[in-house]
Amino acid sequence: MRQRARSLALDVFAPRAASIDSAEMYPWENCFALRDAGFMGMTIPKAYGGAGAGYQEAVVLVEEVAKACGVTGRIAVEANMGAIGAIMAYGTEKQKNLAAELVLDGDKPAICITEPESGSAATEMKTRADKVGNGYVLNGTKHWITGGGVSRLHLIFARVYENDEPQGIAGFLVVRGEPGAEGLSIGRREPTMGLRGIPETEVHLKNLHVPSDMMLQPPSGLRKGFGDLMTAYNGQRVGAAAVALGIAVGAYEQAESFIQKREQFGRPICEFQGLQWMLADMSVQISAARALINEAVSGEGFPDKTKAAQAKLFTSEMAVTVTNNALQMHGAAGYSRNNPVERMVRDARMFTIGGGTAQVLRNVIASDLLNRKFPQTRDGYLTGSSDKSSMEDLRSVVERNPEC
Questions:
Q1: What would the CATH number be for the domain defined by 2-104?
Q2: In what residue span(s) does the Acyl-CoA dehydrogenase/oxidase C-terminal domain sit (predicted)?
Q3: Model confidence pLDDT, tens digit, residues 328-344
Q4: Same CATH topology for 110-220 and 227-370?
Q5: Which of 104, 313, 335, 354 could covalently link to 41 via disulfide, CB atoms 3.0 to 4.6 Å apart?
Q6: d(CA 166, CA 304)
Q7: Other C-beta atoms lying within 10 Å of the C-beta of residue 306
């Protein structure tokens, strides 16, 4: 499978990567190439048309694809992990069949958690889902939604209310463009530093009616189910780490080739010890990152929360270091937009932010190691702030959401 993915990446994705970046266009052709190769939704169980592959195979695919094109690597993640993983684990037969049909046809699901004022603090989301008749009415705004405007299947997280009483946080399946989904609209697109071929947008929800049978009901029930949904998100985190790894490997291979060909002072620059040490360090860091990723996906089911956090934290920071060193080893040639390493530097930078910042992941790891919760809000933070909720309101939120 690695060889098939590598061949596809080299023959199809690598030649298109620069134009995808410069034009900032979503690579539909690459999606269809992944689909035709059986790589879109390959983790979907065979009973629903997928290959029944595990996350071990998925991270191999993602690494190979991301070496050539980071954007396509992200698509491969979201077609095999994240939202689709949660649906296949917790969904009803109707929900599983709906999601499988879309993804296997080439659709990259969009997972809608982040909001303008609720990024790392996901439990502070404001989007509401009010129970009305035989369904729910959603109102709110999501932001930094990967694939906004191109994805059809959306997994939207919202606070559920019945008779204005909070019930917990749930996920809702919505297919953009289908009858009844008129309340979902795409807002402005963020002009991003890297990974420019995949849009990051606002998603507006205005009186969006979602039938009750499109609520994703996790095992712990509505009041505590947000923890289950976040457990599924561990797969997305490991997938992000695999993209960062692939980008770093791509930059490393470019640098290794360049320093053996480039001559200065009458010899190949690979003969200079300073560059040899840089290359050796890059190789060690890449191997360590791959080992952490493999460890995170070595078990059954969703990756362990701490192992996923460790893999993403280390790999994302490694990718920033390795791609920057690869650019440095190219000298002025690396600073040119004609060189793929320049694009890789920009693409790698996102992974210390999206899907859990490096700082938040350190908190996650420390909390698990010490078996203690570390609330980020302390008494006094809201003192004297007239535009913030009262401390009593904050405590009420925490009591209703023990997972936060």
A1: 1.10.540.10
A2: 224-369
A3: 999 999 999 999 999 99
A4: no
A5: 104
A6: 29
A7: 17
Report the predicted TM-score, pTM, of the whole model to 2 decimal places: 0.91
Residue 121 is given by DSSP the state -
The superfamily CATH assigns to domain 110-220 is Butyryl-CoA Dehydrogenase, subunit A, domain 2 (2.40.110.10)
Helix (H) or strand (E) holding 166: strand 165-175
Q: In the block, which residue shows the tokens 């995949």?
A: 198
DSSP 293-310: HHHHTSSSSSPPHHHHHH
Mean pLDDT, rounded, for 229-250 = 94
Q: Which fold has domain 227-370?
A: Butyryl-CoA Dehydrogenase, subunit A; domain 3 (1.20.140)
Query: How many CB atoms neighbour CB 400 within 10 A?
Result: 16
Domain chopping of the chain, boundaries: 2-104, 110-220, 227-370
Give the span between the Cα atoms of 30 and 61, in whole angstroms: 14
**Position of tokens 């953009």?**
176
Burial string for 81-99 (b: 16+ CB within 10 Å, else e) reads bbbbbbbbbbbeeebbebb
- With 0-12 / 13-18 / 19 or more C-beta atoms within 10 angstroms meaning exposed / middle / buried, residue 209 is middle
Give the whole-number percent of the chain exceeding pLDDT 90. 83
